[in-house]
Amino acid sequence: MLQEVDPRNEQVTVLPPRLESDVQEASTSSEQWRSEFPHRWDEDEMVTRRSTLRFLLAGSGVLCLTTGVLAVLSYLPSGPGVQTVAVAKVGELAENASKVFDFPDQYSRAILINLPGKGLVAYRDECTHLSCAVLYQGNGKLHCPCHEGLFDAATGAVLAGPPTRPLPLIQLAVHNGTIYAVKEVTQ
Ligand code: FES
């Protein structure tokens, strides 16, 4: 039997037996609902406040990184003919070492040299005679194996062989520890 309390006069009202059976029936139907639609709480993947916080922190981290990259690019040179291609990390090339890279796209190549006494220089890796690839010899000279053309690695000027024009220079920019090729300049 159920008792109902009226808060105003604290009078106790006894519910009729009919209502008690109704409550029992409702409780039984609730149990039936649970058996018909069982839920395995132990197998459920709970989304906790901690995992939500982790997700939000990771999301803001990615946003910060993207903003940082955009900020870096915005400080590099821009304008007509400027490409901004990352070619190496500062300190990656030992003195007298060289590295060939694609510039301004995958169809053209350029060569980066860490020249003793001068530092980083870059040229189009294409002989001005008949377009063979030139090689850095480690002695301050770029050599074209096709017809023995020779270029000065400090300036790109022709030293020997059939070429008559210097190697086109590739302008470099250094920002945040990365070396960028930015523009080809015909000399
Ligand atoms: S192509 Fe380089 S010297 Fe002829």
Describe the structure in your own words:
This protein starts with a strand and ends with a strand. The protein is of the alpha+beta class and 187 residues long. A hairpin with a 4-residue loop joins strand 8 and strand 9. It is built from 2 helices and 12 strands; from the N terminus they run E-E-H-H-E-E-E-E-E-E-E-E-E-E. Strands 7-8-9-10 form a 4-stranded antiparallel beta sheet, with no helix packed on it. It has helices at 17-36, 49-75, and strands at 3-6, 11-14, 85-89, 98-102, 109-115, 119-124, 135-136, 141-144, 149-152, 158-160, 169-175, 178-185. Helices cover 25% and strands 32% of the residues. The protein is rod-shaped. The model has no long low-confidence stretch (mean pLDDT 81). The protein has 2 domains: 3-73, no CATH class; 79-185, Rieske [2Fe-2S] iron-sulphur domain (Rieske Iron-sulfur Protein, 3-layer Sandwich), CATH 2.102.10. The structure holds FE2/S2 (inorganic) cluster.
What is the structure about, briefly put?
The chain has 187 residues and is an alpha+beta fold. The protein has helices at residues 17-36, 49-75; strands at 3-6, 11-14, 85-89, 98-102, 109-115, 119-124, 135-136, 141-144, 149-152, 158-160, 169-175, 178-185. The strands form 4 sheets. Strands 7-8-9-10 form a 4-stranded antiparallel sheet, with no helix packed on it. A 3-stranded antiparallel sheet has the order 3-12-11, with no helix packed on it. Strands 4-5-6 form a 3-stranded antiparallel sheet, with no helix packed on it.
